[in-house]
Protein: FAD-binding oxidoreductase
Organism: Desmonostoc muscorum LEGE 12446
Amino acid sequence: LSQDYHTFSPVLVPKLEGKVGDIAVRPVNEAEVCKVAAACAKYRVPLTVRGAGTGNYGQCVPLHGGVILDMTRMQEILWVKPAVARVEAGIKLAAIDKKTREIGWEIRMAPSTYRTATIGGFIAGGSGGIGSVQYGALRDRGNILALRVVTLEDEPRAIELRGDDVQKVNHAWGINGIITEVEIPLGPAYPWAEVIVTFDDFMTAVKFGHALGSADGMIKKSISVFASPIPQYFHALQQYIPQGTHAVFLIIAEPSLELLPGLVQQYGGQITYEKPAQEAGKGTHLAEFTWNHTTLHARTVDTGITYLQSMFPAGKSLQLIEQMYNHFGDEVMMHLEFFRVNGAVLPGGLQ
C-alpha cells in the first residue's frame, strides 16, 4: 500500500526506494476519516492519502512513513440523476458507470485503469484520459462540479468546494485535503464501438487522427496513434496489425461508424479490426492498450522502457510531431493521444 506505478520512472525509482508507511487505515465513512485526520494532526504523524494506487508519479508513496489512508472502502453512490452523480471518493470508476448507465449516462472521462482506479484518486492524481477528446481535461471548468474535503488540523473540518473552488484541491494529490465525496457531470452513454485502423505511413496516421478528432459531428471517446514498432508489444492484437504498420485505435459511437470508412479511405488506411458496442465490453478492451497502459504493455517485454509526456502547440502540432519523429526515430517511439484543449483537438505525446 506504499507503492504506485512510479516504477515507470527511472528518475523516481532511486528517489523513492525503501519508502514505506508505518500503518494502513481503511475508513468506511467520513467520520472515521475525521478521527484519523485529528489523530495525525495532534501527534504530527505524516498522512498519505491513497485510492487504488494506479498513478505513475509517486503520489501514493509516503516520504516520511506514517499513516497510509486507504480510501477504497468508501464506495457509496450517494445519488444519481440525469447528467450528474455524487459518490464517495473510494468508488471505482467502472462501478459508477454501471449505475449511471441504467439511466443512459456515463462518466465523461477516465484513465486507462478505468476498471481499477477510484474517482478520488483520478481527481487527485489524474488529469484526463479516455473521453478527453470530447470533453477536455479534469481541470477544465465544468468537469468537476463539487468536492467535499476533510482538513488536516486538530479539529478537522469537512468543507464543500463548488464551482471554480474545486481547483484548490483538483490534481493536488491529497496534499492539502482529503477528498471524501465527489460530484461530477455525466455525458450521454453512447453505444461505443472499437476500431483499429492501420497505415503504412506514420504521419498519414497522425493526420487521420487529427481529422477525425476535428470532425465535430462524429462522436468519439478515444483516438490513439501508435508508431511502429509499438504495436508489436500488443500481443493480444498482433493478428490485426501487420508488422511495420502504424496503428490508430478508436473508441467511437456506433452512429458515427457509417461515416468512418470514407475518412479512412481518404487517408489511405485499412480498417483491420471492428468490434460492435454489444461486444466491446467483453474480452480485450482497446482502452487498456492506450494512455499509460501502452507503456505497461511495453514494459512486460523490456523493463527499461519508459515515456515522456509532451504537448504540441496548436497551429504547428503536426509539423513538430514530424520533426520529432524524423529526428529520434525508434529511440523515442511515438505514441499520441488526442484531446480537446481550449476548444481545439490536439495531440499529446506519451512517447
Notes: DSSP finds eleven helices and 16 strands in the chain. The first strand starts at residue 23 and ends at 25. The chain has a mean pLDDT of 97.
